[in-house]
Design brief:
Oligomer: single chain
Helix content: 40-55%
Radius of gyration: 12 Å
Number of strands: 3
Distance between the termini: 29 Å
Strand order of the largest sheet: 1-3-2
Number of helices: 3
Amino acid sequence: MSGRSLAGYGELLTMEEVCIVLQLSRHTVYELARTGDVPTIRLGRQLRTPRAALEQMMDRSAECDSADV
């Protein structure tokens, strides 16, 4: 599994999995999570990103990219 496809992931992604999907560094993903740009939920001390929320975020981003062309 590499970049942009969420097909092989479970319902909740770890931050490391989000890094792979978005092809961003760990620091950048945690910063985006801190600012709320990447949707997250906290399970104890761990952050998880719901797959459905990440898919929606990516769809919105793709729509914005295609509108710019």
